Amino acid sequence: MDKLRAITVFRRVIELGSFKAAAEDMGLSKAAISKNISELEDDLKSPLINRTTRKMHITENGQRYYNHVRHILDELNHADLSILASSHQLSGLLKISVPMSVGLLQINPAVCEFMQQHPEISVEVMMSDHYVDLVDQGLDIAIRGGGALKNSSLRSRKILGMKRVLCAAPDYLERATHLTGPDDLGEHNCLVYSLSSSPRHWVFHRQGETQAIDLPPGSYVVNNGLALKQATLAGLGICLIPELFVEKELKSGELTRLLPRWQADQHALYAIYPYHKEQSHKVRTFIDFLVGYFDR
Fold first, then answer.
1. Of the candidates 85, 104, 122, which is a domain's last residue?
2. Which intervals hold domain HTH lysR-type (predicted)?
3. End residue of a domain, out of 64, 85, 106
4. What percentage of the chain has pLDDT greater than the value 90?
5. What is the pLDDT of residues 185-230, one digit of tens each?
6. Does the structure show a pLDDT above 80 at 149?
7. Number of domains in the chain
8. Which residue has the higher pLDDT, 16 or 263?
């Protein structure tokens, strides 16, 4: 048995949820996938996956084993790439899709610094808040908000956590009813970012307590974060927005942070890339750079 191969097959079966999907993803037959899993189970003397003709379920030992081996496989891949990176000069074209607002505020400055470090690289940036099909558009990487990947041919890596804050302009607060908790938001004009995964469903946490609010229709809906901030500054209502968008305004008093004891669900940005780009030197180097850039 090629144990490394068997472990890799096991990981893909778990992540894709079926032997058939793993076979298609890895270019193997279902029989080869099944053989690798069976040999691995025999070697470990423990069932890892219970399967029937219709369904498969990971066992408790299988889940424990998966949690360990996925990190080991990732480290092996990173080790290989680190050697490749030291022996190949970075060059060529890198095509990237980024959201408009966070792209201007955060991603584009990082891209510029990356290009300064790698002068042989050319970068084409597509700024759009809408979903872009990476393969159809010939893109190497897309920067997107978090969420489950619907396409099993894509991979993701977190690059930036984004704390969100509830805020409004003092002018609006002088005219509005007092806000004492998340339940009161239904009495306010809440401004909505339409491309959120849950535009009108806001969730807040405080010391183990959770409150989920379904907002009534407000007077302003927009598909751009900076436009959302502008509407809030104009006193139109309350917004829930990434803190990095409004740090300056919160410090200056142009906006007021609301319900500071409550924390909204945190969002994150991920680098999304096609599976076949996983071994691309320039793709891996750029993503590693972004992770390090935002860690700073």
1. 85
2. 1-59
3. 85
4. 54
5. 999 999 999 988 788 999 999 998 999 999 988 899 999 999 999 9
6. no
7. 3
8. 263
Task: Write the burial class of residue 286 (CB in 10 Å: 0-12 exposed, 13-18 middle, 19+ buried).
Answer: buried
Q: Are residues 215 and 261 in the same domain?
A: yes
Q: For the chain, where are the alpha helices, taking DSSP H only? A: 3-16, 19-26, 30-44, 60-87, 100-102, 108-117, 134-137, 170-175, 225-233, 243-252, 281-295
Is 22 in contact with 16 (CB distance < 8 Å)? yes
Average pLDDT over residues 20-47: 89
Judgement on whether residues 94 and 153 belong to the same structural domain of the protein:
yes
CB contact set of 163 (below 8 Å; sequence gap of 6+): 242, 243, 263, 266
Segment holding 273, helix H or strand E: strand 267-274
What backbone phi and psi angles, to 5 degrees, belong to 149?
A: -80, 120
Q: Are residues 16 and 63 in the same domain?
A: yes
Under a CB-based contact definition with an 8 Å cutoff, are residues 240 and 213 in contact?
Answer: no
Same domain, 23 and 75: yes
Question: Quick one: which of 75, 252, 43, 255 has its CA closest to 240?
Answer: 255
Tell me the per-residue pLDDT of 158-189, one tens digit each, with 9 for 90 and over. Answer: 988 889 999 999 999 999 999 999 999 999 99
The DSSP bridge pattern shows strands 164-168 and 238-242 to be antiparallel
Task: Check if the beta carbon of residue 149 is closer than 8 Å to that of residue 272.
Answer: yes
> How many angstroms separate the Cα of 42 from the Cα of each of 28, 39, 68?
21, 5, 18
The identity of residue 182, as a single letter, is P
Same domain, 185 and 63: no
10 is in which domain, residue-wise?
3-85
**Do 80 and 171 lie in a common domain?**
no
